[in-house]
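In response to the reviewer comment on reproducibility (Comment 2.3), we provide here a single inverse folding case reported in full, input and output, so that an independent group could reproduce the run without further information from us. The structure tokens appear first.
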């Protein structure tokens, strides 16, 4: 093996390790947004999805859900109602039939790191977790 092959192999390995570690860092896949930009984004989303975000705000303002961050997205008629009992007690659910804009909003909030998927409850629903920043924005929103 000549020296050129040895150096090329070393550089290729080092570059591979660097790229893998760069893309595997936690949170790096989410879009970085400053607080000002995040507030602006939230205001724009509020204008577009006011009914749904207002419902989320009401849930976060509810004393029963003061520290609750998990919610489900599912189809109606699944059998346990808006604040049903699911595995670990009461939970919040938003229904696809009630909000035609639910999936686009969930995708946008996920892309900006304001919610994160935490797994599937089953084939009819998906489970998400609100970030503390989104809870802060929801609770701070003044409604008329």
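Designed residues, in position order:
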């Amino acid at each position: 093996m000549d020296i050129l092959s040895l150096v090329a192999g070393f550089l290729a390995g080092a570059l591979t390790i660097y790229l893998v570690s760069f893309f595997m860092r936690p949170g790096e896949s989410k879009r970085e947004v400053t607080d000002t930009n995040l507030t602006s984004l939230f205001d724009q989303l509020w204008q577009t999805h006011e009914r749904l975000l207002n419902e989320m705000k009401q849930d976060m303002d509810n004393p029963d859900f003061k520290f609750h961050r998990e919610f489900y997205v599912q189809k109606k008629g699944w059998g346990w109602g808006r604040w049903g009992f699911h595995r670990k007690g009461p939970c919040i659910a938003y229904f696809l039939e009630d909000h035609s804009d639910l999936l686009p909003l969930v995708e946008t909030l996920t892309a900006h790191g304001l919610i994160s998927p935490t797994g599937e409850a089953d084939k009819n629903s998906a489970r998400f977790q609100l970030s503390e920043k989104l809870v802060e924005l929801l609770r701070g929103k003044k409604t008329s």
